[in-house]
Amino acid sequence: MISQKEIHKVAVDHLFWQSPVNIPEKLCLIHSEVSEAMEAHRSLTSSKDQIEEELADIIIRVLDLAEYLNMDMEVAVEAKHFINEGRPIRHGKRY
User: Fold this and answer.
1) What are the pLDDT tens digits along the chain (95 aa)?
2) What's the burial of 90, exposed, middle or buried (CB within 10 Å: 0-12/13-18/19+)?
3) C-alpha span between 72 and 29 (Å, rounded)
4) Beta carbons within 10 angstroms of residue 35's beta carbon
5) Alpha helices by DSSP H, the chain
6) pLDDT at site 91
7) Which domain holds residue 23?
């Protein structure tokens, strides 16, 4: 898999990181990718490839922001995974 350093470098090279940096805007862009994935899922004409591409965009934006914030998402995801593994079914909630 491509590293978050490489992903962030491409974003910087393509001028997606201009001063001043606006973190809330970056978070909203992640949210917009989630919305695009939802719309692709809801569309009668969307293919698996279109949904997959939107999910990839979500991951790319998250890794890009994490690199800027000096966060290691590989370590963070692994740690969170182990926390989730130890949780009760549905976190003990009914839903």
Assistant:
1) 899 999 999 999 999 999 999 999 999 999 999 999 999 999 988 899 999 999 999 999 999 999 999 999 999 999 999 999 998 888 788 77
2) exposed
3) 20
4) 11
5) 4-13, 23-42, 48-68, 73-85
6) 79
7) 4-92
**Range 67-87 burial, b when 16+ CB lie within 10 A, else e:** bbeeeebeeeeeeeeeeeeee
Whether residue 7 contacts residue 57, with contact meaning beta carbons closer than 8 Å, is answered with no
Q: The CATH number of the domain where 56 resides is what?
A: 1.10.287.1080
Count of structural domains, the chain: 1
